[in-house]
Amino acid sequence: MSADARVPAAEARDRIRRFQERLRHEGVELALVRQNADLAYLAGTVQDAHLLVPARGTPLFLVRRCLDRARRESPLERIAPLAGLSRLPGILRNEGWDDVRTLGLEMDVLPARLYLHYSREVWPEAEVRDVTPLLRELRAVKSPWEVDCIRGAAAQAAEAVAAVPGVLRPGMTELELAAEVEARLRRRGHPGFFRMRGWNQEIGMGQILSGPAGAVPAWTQTPAGGEGPGPAFGQGASFRRIGRNEPVSVDIGGWDRGYLCDQTRMFVAGRLPRDLRAAFEAVRRLLEDLAARLRPGAVCGDLYRLAVETMEAAGLGDHFMGSGAERVPFVGHGLGLEVDELPLLCRDNPARLAPGMVVAVEPKLIFPGRGLVGLEDTFLVTETGAEVLTTAPREVIEV
Amino acid sequence: MSADARVPAAEARDRIRRFQERLRHEGVELALVRQNADLAYLAGTVQDAHLLVPARGTPLFLVRRCLDRARRESPLERIAPLAGLSRLPGILRNEGWDDVRTLGLEMDVLPARLYLHYSREVWPEAEVRDVTPLLRELRAVKSPWEVDCIRGAAAQAAEAVAAVPGVLRPGMTELELAAEVEARLRRRGHPGFFRMRGWNQEIGMGQILSGPAGAVPAWTQTPAGGEGPGPAFGQGASFRRIGRNEPVSVDIGGWDRGYLCDQTRMFVAGRLPRDLRAAFEAVRRLLEDLAARLRPGAVCGDLYRLAVETMEAAGLGDHFMGSGAERVPFVGHGLGLEVDELPLLCRDNPARLAPGMVVAVEPKLIFPGRGLVGLEDTFLVTETGAEVLTTAPREVIEV
């Protein structure tokens, strides 16, 4: 990680400027931003704070906790204390922001109780608009600085995954393997979990799964899942002992200055059975085919349909991205400050890729009772195609 | 962890029964429960699901993902698929739950967009009540099975912390020490982070802080904080190298069957300066004094006031639970499935302790530029007093 992990001031100004352009375009007079990842994006720091962004003028960052850190970490010009929610109306009156007609809120993440407070008590006359789609679309296109962060995350993940062959042995539990890999990420600065925007979505540093556990679905929006340590957290590594000759998927992400990468590689203690090896080769060809089509203008839903059709033609359609009733209808997802960003390479999505988007493509096949075989790489969409950011060779590593 | 991590069926029935009693008492006809920790509590499993609990009758657990796991893990009697939100009204009509007058929702955690969907589209005639206070009060009193889980978590934490003296050396970074401690928790089944109910509150497996970093506040509701790996996640262990003769606080929690403990112990590579050692002794006496007063009927706010007055009398009031403008007004918190449960030993809180409550008491002193000195133990309130569940000796370990 670089010595100064702060968002460069020029970049922060640009983010605000582009957000304000979108607010004006949508006719939103004032946006109140509160969620951690959105604050990291627009304020350059995560605090207990209210970021008020008018469609025109200078944003005001009202910090309840911690003001000194906000001043040290944020490139925003106007940073002031907020002693409590009850002080908000007075500040708004002083700014002339108390009688806006259209107010933007993050409606997918803002808790109901806070939504009612803002919409009934603070701005009772305002029409509330959901600014989450604006924020998610803005954040989907990464700057060179953001891509540099994601490259840093990819280097961190590569280092952690390179340790697997020296650690993996049959008889160890999934959790023991996860502990080894994750400790390497942690030493390099990973906070310990992926940030996810979706409500009730939770994940640690990834999912390390072996044999049949790789085919167990979980509640989160992932093709894999895993048993996890128990019903209260039924995903990811479990106490299951890794056997010989069964697939071990290592799906993890590094972290640098807030930004994530996402990568899946396959390992096996022994040799992968011939049919699973063939399935892996089909997945690898599909990933290469998809990578070649990641370019500006490509339609997200078309990429998903191509993946489904390719796997069906290979006789693997029943295994693609889940099995039975438990499937996920996507083959890739954006990522950055959160692991569930736009664009989503999902069924019927008419959205088009654009330069600067970063997307994890993760074709995976699920074989009930046997396991998961798949790959995942994080790509940057460039003007002319796509560049892969996660650089480990796409091989099954036999130990 | 025990072989079967499921909530016992009799216990699950009892939880539902007590929740229904409270719903009837509050005049709520039907509650819709969706948040992960509340589902873990009432359904015994975390799924993408709607749990409908009528004030009278049998609850219905509608599972969008994953139905098979819900049937395997949950002790509830009625479990059915929910193909999508659009199917909900039809199911409600069949159950006679479509025209309830009072509907209970988790208003502190339910996102605004979902709240509006339920209150405008699904139950447009219902008056919405916030059932979070009911759920939090129910969950504050633990059963013997839950206490057994927390004991398991405490054993896990004790094992991890016992490794610190063998690992700590001056010159290593906070993150390197954290990686070692956390890997031990992870091997034993910790999912990798604390669940927190408060919106925008996030934490990994704890906060391991050294010297001046221990005195840096963070946005979360903790007396400590720390620099963290950067402004996008400004809490917990950082790249700072641990020096000689400075306090190192290891604030971590174990995990067993969904339940957490919380514990803080102090270490030092070398010797703790005399004044910080004296501060530690004052904190230890305060913790012992508070522990002796943790009994049924004790008023939470009184315990906090006692702590403040004791520290003021010792000349340490300016350092208690923060410094300068950044303080937290509590000295302890409940915990279980989440780390921010009731009861809260906070300023002016008239709530009283009751048998079965589990509370982490964490008197901490912050010395800007020098660090944090404190202790934390998790206690069970019994009929006659309190039993400490975290059992490591309350010593500063000099390495």
Automatic annotation (TrEMBL), chains A, B:
GO terms for molecular function: aminopeptidase activity. Signal peptide: none annotated. CDD domains: APP_MetAP. Residues 15-141 form the Creatinase N-terminal domain. Keywords: Aminopeptidase, Hydrolase, Protease. Residues 148-383 form the Peptidase M24 domain. The keyword Hydrolase applies. InterPro entries: Creatin/AminoP/Spt16_N, Creatinase/aminopeptidase-like, Creatinase_N, Pept_M24, Peptidase_M24B. It comes from the Bacteria. This is Aminopeptidase P family protein. It comes from Dissulfurirhabdus thermomarina.
